[in-house]
Amino acid sequence: MKSLATALALIAPAYAGLRFPCSTLTIQRLDPVVQPGSLPSSHLHHIVGGNAFNASMEGDVGERATCTTCQMAEDFSNYWTAVLYFKHPQNGSYHRVPVVPVQPLLGGSQGATGGLTVYYTQFDLSRDNLKQQAITPFKPGFRMTVGAPTEAGKPHVGLRYQCLTGQSRGPEISDFPDKPCTGGIFATQHFPACWDGVNLDSPDHQSHMYNTINRDGFTNAPACPASHPIRVPQVTFETVWDTTQFNSMWPSGTPNPFVWSFEGKAGGTHADYMFGWKGDSLQRAMAKSECFYDGCGSITKQAMTTANRCTVKDFVGENMDGCKFVHPHCPICFFFWGRVADGRDALVTKWWAAAEFGLDNDGDY
């Protein structure tokens, strides 16, 4: 991706776009797109958006939700990604990496807690490669995914990482950084923006979409092909994983110790999207040039203090954080691939006493 600062400097203000923070809604093993109805799903997700989120979600999500963790008060969509874990190089224990708000270029995070930043872009941010192709909003019931946890060794265009150091994001890379990052790891996921115009979903949750990204997410977007002729807004997630607390436990010269919650490496990064804007609100945003990232007079915004009060219940009831300060009687949460009750291979949990690993109670991992 071209530097966002550079891209925004080049964009004509007549183009509409949205950029806004969403606080964390919940962190659970639920995936109503890939594994609808499963309690739990095979791996842990970090979820933001509307409180209609559940193990199964059909129809108009926006009509069922009553609150959202997103700044745009009419957006009851749900957005989610896998969760990042630190795998201790010495004892093999796993510890969930917290999320911190993205500090955006425009306006700050306005009090978001955790969460991620969401984009809906109308045109290429540097030039109009789309030839003013009309933007069609998503329909109720629409959902899609990008990336694949089963393809961890295959980098996907538009799915990138950056090593945050001070005020710099650093270059975009397809793998995890190979050294500790003083500001955390910045992850970006760009979704396809060309739809077949018929299917709200597909068996693989991707075939109903066509990815026009040739190289980067915010640039080089050609017109949609005849097979997928409908141009929809390009959805993008940005997440900051606060890996800084683990930097001192990453021995110099050793491989990156971070893994996704499906026990996957960097190439398996993926994200899910379920549309849930109220009524014609997204259409109004995409049709009006007054909507330019964090400013949009036609769309209602809410204070993040209000958004932060939106919650959903814990459907699964699992401890996914592990034990930060070990004690002979305090279990450490280990994850491993194994068979679960229905015969699937999945990331499952086992607890051992810290004493089994010779760990003391001095607060070290």
From TrEMBL:
Domain DUF1996 as annotated: residue spans: 31-277
Q: What is this protein called?
A: DUF1996 domain-containing protein
Q: Any signal peptide, and if so, which residues?
A: 1-16
Q: Which UniProt keywords apply?
A: Signal
Instruction: Kindly give the Pfam families that the UniProt entry links to this protein.
Output: DUF1996
InterPro entries referenced in this protein's UniProt entry, alphabetically = DUF1996 (IPR018535)
Task: Determine if Signal is one of this entry's keywords.
Answer: yes
Q: Which domain of life is it from?
A: Eukaryota
